[in-house]
Amino acid sequence: MSDRYFVDTNVLLYAHDRGAGAKHEPARSLIERLWRERSGAISTQVLQELYVNVRRKAAAPLSVVECRRLIEDYLSWDVVVNDGASVLRAIELEARYGISFWDALIVQAAEQSGAAILYSEDLSHGQRYGFVEVVDPLRDRRSTQGR
Fold first, then answer.
1. Where are the alpha helices (DSSP H) in 38-134?
2. Residue 114 · residue 108 · CB < 8 Å
3. Quick check: 142 pLDDT over 50?
4. Percentage of the chain surpassing pLDDT 90?
5. In terms of Cα–Cα distance, which of 46, 39, 43 is closest to 16?
6. 20, part of any domain
7. Residue 140 needs a FRET pair 20 to 30 A away by CA distance; which of 26, 28, 41, 122 works?
8. Does residue 145 sit within a domain?
9. Residue 93: Cβ-neighbour burial (10 angstroms; 0-12, 13-18, 19+)
10. Residue 143 has pLDDT above 60, yes or no
11. How far apart are CA 2 and CA 102, in angstroms?
12. Taking the CA atoms of the chain, what radius of gyration do you get in angstroms?
């Protein structure tokens, strides 16, 4: 395993949405740490969802120009490109773990990136999918220290 950390869309959204309340600061701090360490990984699915969510669902929506800059910045991270094999692997993970297809696509991207940790608020904290462990960085700050 590498020192890669895969980040789900919800964590990125909270980091960039100043209107996210108490979730904004811990998410922002985590993303800043991953930038400093150059250890963040995402997928094309995450980029697509981030764009739509910061434009339309954020409490403080970003402009198209701001969103484009944001996406361009994240292209410097390790980006997993979902392809046909990704879809097939997600189908396997969906069946094996009983999770939604979209969550399985996130898990397979984390797996493909080599990340041992998948930061997500949507998946169950502490759940393991093979070598990938889900950590909810917004759940309890004490449980994620040192990660």
1. 44-56, 64-74, 84-97, 101-113
2. no
3. no
4. 84
5. 46
6. yes
7. 41
8. no
9. buried
10. no
11. 24
12. 14
Q: 3-state DSSP call for residue 31?
A: helix
Q: Is residue 114 one of the residues assigned to a domain? A: yes
What secondary structure letter does DSSP report for 21?
G
Q: Enumerate the β-bridge partners of residue 79.
A: 42
Q: What CATH number is attached to the domain comprising 106?
A: 3.40.50.1010
pTM score: 0.90
66 inside domain: yes
Q: Cα torsion for 76, 43, 53, 3, to the nearest 10°?
A: -70
Rounded-to-10 torsion of CA 79, 84, 86, 89:
-170
Total domains in the chain come to: 1
Instruction: Point out which residues pair with 80 in neighbouring strands.
Output: 43
Question: What's the mean pLDDT in 36-48?
Answer: 97
Q: Which residue has the tokens 């397979």?
A: 108
Domain that holds residue 126: 5-138
Beta bridge partners of 135: 119
